[in-house]
Amino acid sequence: MPEPVGVAGIAYLNARPLLAGLEAGIDAPFSYRFESAEPGTCAQRLASGAVGAALVPVASLPSLPGVQVHSGLGVACRGAVTSVLLISKVPPERVATLAIHRASRSAVTLARLLLTEKFGVRPHLVTVDPPLANMLANADATVIIGDPAMRVAGQTGLCELDLAAAWNDWTGLPFVFAVWALSPVAPTTTSDLLVASHAHARAHWEELLTRWAQAHGRTIAEVRTYLEQILHFELNDADRAGMAEFLRRAATADVLPTAVSES
């Protein structure tokens, strides 16, 4: 009997609508196992062959040769997102050191791109583990994403730059943080499973909002606003154009990670 196909998803509130069916164990024409992890770890698991599909940071795609991108689903926004922040002790144009950790490659890459191309600085990167205070004790600025970012947004007393809003102001395009990527050896019906997982979320939306609010320490109203008004999960041509432009600009600026093992 073949081993179950591994499917890895990002362990943040912003990805829950894409993972709902997988977490519920919906039926599929093949056996699968779901696991949740940090964004960078999802990319590593796919690169190593440990899983057949993963929700990965867009910035990791150039270092995942041979994967098939499910271009219809992802985590995206068309402006301010509140959960992907550059937090800095100095104005962006004065950032000399940037603390990074095993966070989303897309967020770190976007921060580096904006600092280089929009603010005219190319900070030295230092790898520092959270919490936020520790990271800022070792650098001028850091990138914080997901649930931790939502907990501190607007409360740090420091310079906070919403990276998705800055991207939209700069380019006029949406920003796609993560997409499903499939191994060449994944079953041909894996894409159908991913679509069904999102459909499961839509079919059980109100119940899931309550569950997610409890799990992530937010109010139902906050979760509803975040998942219904700030983020979207079905990608269109504008989203795909934004994703392509991000990868193009990041490559030109030489800020893309070179391997999935990079932080």
Short description:
The protein has 263 residues and is an alpha/beta fold. The chain is built from ten helices and eleven strands. A six-stranded mixed sheet has the order 2-1-3-10-4-11. It has a five-stranded mixed sheet with strand order 7-6-8-5-9.
Q: Any overview of this molecule?
A:
- With 263 residues, the chain is of the alpha/beta class.
- It folds into 2 domains: 5-76 and 176-236, D-Maltodextrin-Binding Protein, domain 2 (3-Layer(aba) Sandwich), CATH 3.40.190.10; 84-173, Periplasmic binding protein-like II (D-Maltodextrin-Binding Protein, domain 2, 3-Layer(aba) Sandwich), CATH 3.40.190.
- It has helices spanning 16-24, 39-48, 105-118, 132-137, 146-152, 163-171, 190-203, 205-216, 220-230, 237-252; strands at residues 5-10, 32-37, 53-57, 68-77, 84-88, 97-100, 124-127, 141-145, 159-162, 175-182, 231-234.
- The strands form 2 sheets. A 6-stranded mixed sheet has the order 2-1-3-10-4-11.
- α1 crosses α7, α3 (105-118) packs across α6 (163-171) and α8 (205-216) crosses α9 (220-230).
- The longest helix is centred in the last third of the chain and has 16 residues, at 237-252.
- The protein is globular and about 55 Å long.
